[in-house]
Amino acid sequence: VLVACVEFIRTNDRAQLRERLDELWNHPDARSLSQKEISSLSLLELRTALSTAQDDWAGAVLTRAGELLSGLADVDVLRAMAHAYHGRNTAARTAIAPIVSGERICSGTNAQIAGWLLEAHLAAANDEPRQASHAVSQAIALAAARRALRNVVTTASIRVRELLLAGQGGFGAHEEFVTQALAAMTRARNRH
């Protein structure tokens, strides 16, 4: 998987990435991956599929994740991401509601972070500043504890970036992490 991702970064060939990932998922050893690994890889693959508007690929990711992570909250986050991408914000919030309420926790911390970042985005879009602030704080607390800077940078929307900018100075022990995340987001945006 790492080789496929490095090749993608080098070539920016999404078709080649999809082909390599399909090969990897079809390999017998893929079934021995942990739930956390499957969750993280599914997040990466879904983000790539959605960012390239390949609905068939996104659907395949959701189907596979549903089979391999059956009954886990990680699948709810993946479905919520797909709903949000297609503008179905109510469905997205419904999918992540059990995570936001604390009823369910994802097996993969990356999925939990993505869920909170998505909730922050959706709450901000729905003009719910208190919920948006709470959600972004939850995401930052989880991400900072794991030093998961890349997760925040690759998952955070422009709305979430605005929430981070507006909240600067209010993240307490995580302030340095937020500053690093904002700087990385700026660098990433300037590259494109």
- Strand elements, count: 0
Q: N- to C-terminal separation?
A: 24 Å
Count of helical stretches = 11
From the spread of the alpha carbons, the general shape counts as globular
Query: What structural category arises from helix and sheet content?
Result: mainly alpha
Low-confidence stretches: none
Percentage of helical residues?
over 70%
Query: What is the C-alpha radius of gyration, as a whole number of Å?
Result: 16 Å
Question: What features would you describe in this structure?
Answer:
The chain is mainly alpha-helical and 192 residues long. It contains eleven helices and no strands. Helix 3 packs parallel to helix 5, helix 5 runs parallel beside helix 7 and helix 9 packs across helix 11.
Compact description:
The protein is mainly α. It has helices at residues 2-11, 14-26, 35-51, 55-68, 73-85, 89-100, 109-125, 129-146, 149-155, 158-167, 175-191.
What layout of secondary structure does this protein have?
Elements: H1 2-11, H2 14-26, H3 35-51, H4 55-68, H5 73-85, H6 89-100, H7 109-125, H8 129-146, H9 149-155, H10 158-167, H11 175-191
Helix pairs in contact: 1-2, 3-4, 3-5, 3-7, 4-5, 5-6, 5-7, 6-7, 7-8, 7-10, 9-11
Identify the notable features of this structure and list them briefly.
192 residues; mainly alpha; 11 helices
